[in-house]
């Protein structure tokens, strides 16, 4: 159920940010997910940023992206993900195996990001040749999805 809601929220957020990005080429679409704090934000890395600083391709550098947390000011995103963010944190806090609980969250987010609906929404954007989607565990660096957009 969460994946459907997240997918819908992500598609809407992409539609909202499209006019701000215009024709700027996108290299990465990522979700920054921290189950232990209930944090969930979308992030976009542009091709011009990568040309200026290729080190930004490292998921650990996501907070330095110009369009990091582009969903933060999107009231629809905040409303549509609020209950799940709270549930995600509660599930993590009460899990006997927190590592496994976090992994399930990352996998659910990865499936949502890789969904047909998100791919269709990305069709409105100019994607760089190296475009990929990503969900990465910020603690271990494990990448749960890395899909070419072309």
Counting DSSP E segments of at least 2 residues, the number of strands comes to: 5
In spatial order, strands of the major sheet run: 3-2-1-4-5
Number of helices: 5
Integer tally of domains: 1
Q: How does this structure look, described?
A:
It is a single chain. The protein has a five-stranded mixed beta sheet with strand order 3-2-1-4-5. With 150 residues, the protein is an alpha+beta fold. It has one domain (2-148). It has helices at residues 2-21, 47-52, 75-94, 98-113, 116-122; strands at 25-34, 39-46, 67-68, 126-136, 143-148. It is globular, with a radius of gyration of 15 Å. Helix 1 (2-21) crosses helix 4 and helix 3 (75-94) runs antiparallel to helix 4. It is built from five helices and five strands.
Topology (elements, then pairings):
Blueprint: H1 2-21, E1 25-34, E2 39-46, H2 47-52, E3 67-68, H3 75-94, H4 98-113, H5 116-122, E4 126-136, E5 143-148
Helix pairs in contact: 1-3, 1-4, 1-5, 3-4
Features:
25% strand; 5 helices; 5-stranded mixed β-sheet; alpha+beta
Compact summary:
The protein has 5 helices and 5 strands. The protein has helices at residues 2-21, 47-52, 75-94, 98-113, 116-122; strands spanning 25-34, 39-46, 67-68, 126-136, 143-148. β4 (126-136) and β5 (143-148) form a beta hairpin.
């Amino acid at each position: 159920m969460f994946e459907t809601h997240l997918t819908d929220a992500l598609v809407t957020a992409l539609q909202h940010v499209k006019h701000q990005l215009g024709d700027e080429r996108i290299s990465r679409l990522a979700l920054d997910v921290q189950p232990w704090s209930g944090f969930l934000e979308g992030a976009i890395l542009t091709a011009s940023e990568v040309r200026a600083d290729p080190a930004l391709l490292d998921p650990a550098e996501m907070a330095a992206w110009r369009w990091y947390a582009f969903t933060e000011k999107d009231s629809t995103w905040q409303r549509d993900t609020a209950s799940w963010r709270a549930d995600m944190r509660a599930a993590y806090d009460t899990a006997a195996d927190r590592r496994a609980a976090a992994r399930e969250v990352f996998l659910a987010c990865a499936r949502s990001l890789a969904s047909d609906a998100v791919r269709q929404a990305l069709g409105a954007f100019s994607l760089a040749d190296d475009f990929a989607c990503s969900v990465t565990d910020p603690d271990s660096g494990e990448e749960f999805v890395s899909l070419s957009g072309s």
